[in-house]
Structure formats: structure tokens, C-alpha cells
Write a structure and sequence with these properties.
Elements: H1 3-29, E1 33-36, E2 42-46, E3 52-57, H2 59-62, H3 67-97, H4 101-108
Antiparallel strand pairs: 1-2, 2-3
Helix pairs in contact: 1-3, 3-4
Length: 169
């Protein structure tokens, strides 16, 4: 290979790497993700690095849920969005990384998928009482067992005598 051929080959490789780097930059910028709850009342957005960039709560997200349940749902959506962003980053890096150690490192940080929740059970409907029936009252709870009586305290301090070193004379 002549020096001119080698230089042309080298410049071609550099141009290819520049093109792939630019594709990676564009893909990385677009790797952020937004996910929403099934009813659309909660939306969570994350950047390509997984940091929270957006949180939108519709008024309907605040009704009928405890604070703990709302927080749980937000965190679940945030984890789902973070996983989506990590998958997008890995896909953007794939043309540069190929099957390299660097690619394995990037894909090694992809969080596991959230387990799907089983469908909610149907609400139990109470039986409607007819006019001639009386409502049943539940039986009272069983009585709590009483504590055994404590043995009497023996406050006899004869072992130490009546002298004290704290007394002033």
C-alpha cells in the first residue's frame, strides 16, 4: 500500500467515525423518554442520563388515592422512563460500540423491566338486604388476655446499709 492509499484509507475511517459520532450525539439528545399512567393522569419525563426532567399531574391523579399510592405510581413511572432512556442511549451507542467492552458496559446499566401488575380484582359487592332482613352485626372481638400480675418489689436495701457518700455533714 502506498502512503497516499494509506492516508486516503485513514481519512475515510476518520470521516466514518465523525459521522457515527454525530449520529450518536443526535441519538443521545433524543434518548430522553416520557411515560404516562394508563389513564394519562400522571406523566413523567427523564433525560438520557435518567434524571427527572418533567412531572405532570392531572387533577384526577390526586383524587381517590392516598399520598403513598400516588408516590408509588410516580416512582414506578419514573423507573419505567429511566429504563426507556437507558435503552435509547444503548441503541444510539450501538453503531459506535458494536460488540465491544464499552457496549457491554453501557447495556449493563439498563435497569430491569418493571414486572407487570396483575389485573385488579373486581370489587366485592355487598349483598343488598331486603326490607324484612336485619343487618348482621359482626361478633365482638375476643377479649384480650390479661397480663400476669407483677411480683411485689423488694425495696429492702439492707445489703448497702444506711450510709451514703452523697450526704453532706
Amino acid at each position: 500500500m502506498t502512503p497516499e492509499e494509506w492516508l486516503a484509507n485513514f481519512e475515510s475511517k476518520i470521516a466514518d467515525v465523525r459521522e457515527k459520532a454525530e449520529q450518536f450525539r443526535v441519538g443521545l439528545e433524543a434518548s430522553g423518554t416520557t411515560v404516562a399512567s394508563p389513564d394519562g393522569s400522571i406523566r413523567v419525563g427523564v433525560a438520557p442520563n435518567g434524571s427527572l426532567t418533567d412531572l405532570q399531574l392531572a387533577d384526577s391523579a390526586l383524587t381517590g388515592k392516598s399520598g403513598a399510592k400516588l408516590a408509588e405510581e410516580i416512582l414506578k413511572l419514573a423507573r419505567k422512563a429511566q429504563r426507556g432512556a437507558a435503552v435509547n442511549v444503548a441503541a444510539a451507542f450501538a453503531p459506535l460500540g458494536g460488540d465491544s467492552e464499552a457496549m457491554h458496559m453501557v447495556t449493563g446499566y439498563v435497569p430491569p423491566e418493571e414486572p407487570e401488575e396483575p389485573p385488579a380484582p373486581e370489587p366485592v359487592r355487598e349483598r343488598q338486604l331486603w326490607q324484612h332482613e336485619e343487618a348482621e352485626t359482626p361478633p365482638p372481638p375476643p377479649p384480650r388476655p390479661s397480663r400476669p400480675a407483677r411480683p411485689p418489689r423488694d425495696d429492702d436495701d439492707d445489703d448497702f446499709g444506711d450510709t451514703t457518700f452523697l450526704r453532706r455533714d
